[in-house]
Design goal:
112 residues; mainly alpha; 87% helix; 0% strand
Length: 112
């Protein structure tokens, strides 16, 4: 299980620089809308990465359930993998919600 967690962390470390450097360098941010666009772009990448990881964990859990048979340790490992997949979904949904909160904060701060 620690190997899988290490794999997820390594994947996140590899994907984060790719996602953050994907935006072409442009002019200095002068409007709140530009910040919102950058945040939305980053959140979309993180959201996609978490869902890819989630699909991998769900497939691993299914494989472990199938191969588990009567061995309770294998079934427990499959349940843990499924739990991690649910946690990844929750984090991805929170990332989307945080993006909306920041967008609302920036828009109301700019007009108020």
């Amino acid at each position: 299980m620690r190997k899988q967690l290490l794999l997820v962390i390594m994947l996140a470390v590899v994907l984060f620089p790719v996602a953050s450097s994907a935006a072409a360098p442009g002019p200095i941010v002068t409007k709140p809308e530009q910040v919102v666009n950058i945040i939305n772009y980053a959140v979309r990448w993180i959201y996609t990465a978490f869902f890819v990881i989630t699909v991998i964990y769900i497939l691993l859990a299914a494989y472990k359930f199938l191969r588990g048979g009567d061995n309770p340790k294998n079934i427990e490992d499959a349940k843990k993998s499924l739990t991690y997949a649910v946690i990844a979904i929750i984090i991805a949904l929170f990332a989307t919600g945080i993006s909306v909160l920041i967008e609302n904060f920036l828009k109301t701060g700019a007009t108020g």
